[in-house]
Amino acid sequence: MDIEERPRKVRRLAPAPDCIAGQLVSKARLGRSGTYVLELAAFDSTFAAAGSDKSIRTYDSATLKQLNAIQGKANVTSLTGSVWPAPVLCMTSDQGDAVLYDLRTGAPGGNLSLKSARPGAYTCGAFDSHQTQIAAGTELALHEAHIDIWDLRAAAVVHTYTESHSDDITCVRYHPHRRHQLFSGSTDTLWTCFDTRLSDEDDAVIATGNEGAPLRSMSMLQERLACLTTQETISIWDLAECEVLDELGDVRGQTEQGWQSHHVIRADVTADAVQTWLGTESGEFVVARQSVDEPDAVLATFSGSHSDIVRCIHHDVASDRVKLQSTIRHIEDALLMY
């Protein structure tokens, strides 16, 4: 498809009639004074948090009790988890490799270390739904950014895609229902869908799209793809037609009633909308619903729990609890809360 930038339209948010105020239930501190949380990865009954002190800690999701701590030697660049058939954590770091941890063993050195044979450190990773493959994207090095597809059963790279992106790869995600389809996003503003059963890149590329801004993250459901960019813009794509369904535009400063957002924490596509988590520089945030056919609405507000920017959220839908990560640099420690 042709690559071209698209104009952005402005959206505004208003509180829904049944908008609620979230309540703090519990909190825990991560590490020593000055430590803050970089990434979160969630599992069935536990979650992992990566700290700026190069540690990874696991917690009980119900109580926030710390279960284990792994002290690393490198700064974490991404953290992702897979729950089936076993709870496995994948960490990428500025040392360049991807390290896998089986959370049942708690091995401090990791259970498997994956390092690319080509230049460029891994910046992001993703498991397929059967935990037999992991895709790892790299930074730009020697004019190349690439994606390695690892077969975890053999601990070997089966495919490498080198031509689809021209800058750092910022996110990779497997389709939740089509395990052979891998989506990647990059600083070069493009997202690409690969068929990982194919080694030839020209044949493997199924679709590509241009967001017009560097991509931060992606969320997908069936034939719907939501892309979040570093300019705090969100677009929803129809994957079947490879067309934009809706452009939510720059959401910063778009709420009414005097509340203004500073950044998008995360965006999750739903069957008929996108659920966004919007934060301020002082640690407040809201949950909003934005769709094509209905007015945008703020569903819940959260304040008083943090004093600095919230950068990551995990929403436990089953219990309706929220795990938060924030960069608390001005008080003693980072806080994990629900």
- Summing up helix and strand content along with how strands pair, one would put the structural category as mainly beta
Please give the order of strands in the largest beta sheet.
Answer: 1-26-25-24-23
Assign an overall shape: globular
Q: Quaternary arrangement of the chains shown?
A: single chain
Task: State the end-to-end distance.
Answer: 43 Å
Q: Give the proportion of residues in helices.
A: under 10%
Our Rg estimate from Cα atoms comes to 19 Å
- Strand segment tally: 29
**Biggest beta-sheet profile:** 5 strands, mixed
Strand content: over 45%
Encode the helix/strand succession as letters: EEEEEEEEEEEEEEEEEHEEEEEEEEEEEE
- In the predicted model, the low-confidence regions spanning at least 5 consecutive residues are 1-5, 327-334
**Number of helical regions:** 1
Average of the residue pLDDT scores: 84
Quick summary:
The protein is built from one helix and 29 strands. It is mainly β and 338 residues long.
